[in-house]
């Protein structure tokens, strides 16, 4: 079967992100890393306004953006989570039957550190401007200074 460069490239870029989450989070397992990444991206996407959420999706590899948009209901967003506990509950809910051994706080902090290296500084600044302080604290310190 002949190679299909656009598909190969998005798979490669997606695997790089998953591997970075795996290493950064000390998951030692791509599947767990992917679940942490997916659950965190969904919780973040649902907390943001539609335009900001779409800008993040545009910066993800095409394959990962498909997972990012999966099940999204823009009319039901943004959620009004104000506390870390409320935000983490959404990730716990996602992980509960998929990877209950993953700590949601650890997953979020890991994924945000990795995203910090893959999403433009301007977009991170936009994200941090709309999140309440308690949720901004989940991002790496150097990013918080942008807000």
- In CATH terms, what is the architecture? Orthogonal Bundle
Poorly predicted runs are none
Q: What is the overall shape?
A: globular
**CATH homology superfamily name:** Uncharacterized conserved protein DUF2267
What is the class in the CATH system? Mainly Alpha
Q: Figure out the total of helices.
A: 9
- In total, the number of strands is 0
Rounded Rg: 15 Å
- Characterize the biggest β-sheet: none
Alpha-beta classification: mainly alpha
Fraction of residues in H or I helices: 55-70%
Strand content: under 5%
Reported by name, the CATH topology is: Globin-like
Distance from N terminus to C terminus (CA atoms, Å) equals: 49 Å
The run of helices and strands is HHHHHHHHH
**How many structural domains does the protein architecture include?**
1
Rounded average pLDDT: 92
Organism: Rhodohalobacter mucosus
Protein name: DUF2267 domain-containing protein
InterPro entries: DUF2267 (IPR018727), DUF2267_sf (IPR038282)
What does this structure look like?
With 147 residues, the chain is mostly helical. It has a single domain, classed as Uncharacterized conserved protein DUF2267 (Globin-like, Orthogonal Bundle). It has 9 helices and no strands. It has helices at 5-24, 30-47, 50-59, 62-69, 84-95, 104-115, 121-130, 133-136, 141-144. Helix 1 crosses helix 6 (104-115) and helix 2 (30-47) packs across helix 6 (104-115).
